[in-house]
Amino acid sequence: MSSSSSTTHVKKGKQATHSRKHRYPVGRFQAFLTYILVVMWLFLMSVGIATLLDPDWLDFLSAPEKLDTAMKIEEAGSNMMDRGNLAEAEKLFKQALEIKPDFGNAMVGLGQVYSKMGKEDQAIEMFSKGLHNEPLLPDLAYGNLGAIYENRGESENALKYYKKAAETAPEPTGALVNIGRLYIEMNRPDSAEIVLRRALYNLSDMKIANRASMIFAKRFRRNNPEEVEFIEEKLKKGITEEDVSIYDKEMFLQSRMYSPRAVAIYHLLGVALAMTGKFDEGIEHIRKGLEIQPDNPDIKHDLQTAIAEKERAGI
Q: 145-161 burial, b if ≥16 CB within 10 A, otherwise e?
């Protein structure tokens, strides 16, 4: 359902060597995976059979039990969606909603399935319902709504939802990239420049990444009051340089500033700058993206266009 930032840790020691021996033999690992899948399948089958035999059995479950059961089914639905099995994912999300009709996560998941199926009207309906039922990742719903409206050519509506995604996301960089790209398509390069510079700054700032990871942790541990209280207290105090000093900054920047998202920011920011006549800086940023992805045809084309525009301008 949504994207998160992480910090890469490097453990020093002897370099691993190839060997025919494995700590966990492949056969045993496959057997373990099969066991997990069988247990999940049996659980889902038992829920389905119980519902067929006695539709009122859910009435005997307490609210926490219903939520726990619905969460397990919703998680299975997300796994099916990630594997491309949309039909099965749709069934599971609907099953979760039968157990807990106000389950925002399942509504957003079902909205994603409908969106992937091309059922945009149904997707919009489910995302809207999900947002009224406190999903863990509201930015995921907003971002998907933005994509649907952009696909329909409704740029202003798309922009509205992308902005809401940026406002609600623990790590808004992805939403900012969408906003910047849309501004360029709407011929608003000055606005695109502002947003994409912010995205580039966010991507390189360890404190922002650390804060985002804590917000994610808070969301997914909201059933643990002690952990939530600790995280909230830390967020109130603010993330300090000391908090991130334990991480390897060089490795952090390596993983972030050479990522596909960084490529998109360099590329789009360069295009926006060139559109406003800042050719040298724009070309520099486009080239940074091309250094990371040298075979990207879109970046190559836009680099040639920026250079040609600069020559025509006589600069």
A: bbbbbbeeeeeeebbeb
